[in-house]
Amino acid sequence: MPRAPELAIRRLLGLQRHDSESLAIATGGFAGEQTPSHVPGETATGQRRQRERDREGEAHERERSRSRPRDDSGAAPAKDSGRREDRQAHRTATRDSERDAEQGGRAEDAHREELEQEGELCARRDDVDLGERADRDMLTDQFHDRGAVSFDDLLSPAALAVLKQYLLESTIWHDFDHIGGFVASYLEDGLACPLLLQIVDEIRAAFPNLLKAHPLSQAWAFKGLQPSAAIDAHADDAAVSVNFWVTPTAANRNPDHGGMVVCCVPPPPGWEVTDYHADRERVVTFLGQNAGNSLAVPYRENRAVLFKSRLFHYSDAPNFAPGYENHRISVTLLFGHHGSGRPTQR
Questions:
Q1: pTM score, whole prediction
Q2: Left, alpha or beta for 242 (phi > 0: left; psi -120 to 50: alpha)?
Q3: What is the set of domains in the chain, with CATH numbers?
């Protein structure tokens, strides 16, 4: 018969009289006391099956542990290794993004600095004044007599140095295919910088009798990319043209040539400008017939040619040393009426 404590516990737990297994679990065997020997057989069988299931679970867990991948130390990877890899990939991507942004910022700063330096180069200056030329009257008379005249020292040393640096370092060269072997820039491409316009004003002031009545109508700069790059015979659609060079004289490997030739005989009045570039054979014949009345101007740095724009002119066998700073750079200023305003290769 169950003892008094057992009866009390059975009532509290709502146990049946024969449910000694649950009673033993609840009481812990009453401080080591064994469950009654008369526990039904099905209870012992359930305990045995439970122990077997526990052993099978332990064996299965040991097998899973052996099948997990392990690192070099023999330790199985943690369950959250995938999450660690995701976090590491995120950190790497963040660092790459920050590095790219930093590099992009440096590139933008460098480009902004280049533009600022270019802006400083092309700004108006106080030391560009060309002054009054002592030979101005003589040059003016020669222009009226032949229609073309050449002279040295067009620009002041300061103006020449700054303009040359600007043409070497600026990003105004956008015309790559107008004439083969050259890159070119025009007023609308960036050549119309304050520095060049200041030089134009100085040249007009130096030759008032020739240029005062003719405002600037167009300008271009041509840079030869090959040692022998030359511009074929053409005429400018303007009233007066001024052509000058800024590349160092030492770059010219043929001191007697490398400049330009101007045919001092104007074409017939009926020969319209639009026909100059279409009738190549006629132009060549005309130049041959008037070869004895031409002005050949050897190349020199800061040398200028002032001529009537309708006169045919062309490059005189350039032969320049290789190297970026040796590229032959010529600047042409057109004053007065113009049409297309650009020379065309023939």
A1: 0.65
A2: beta
A3: 4-67 (no CATH), 118-335 (2.60.120.620)
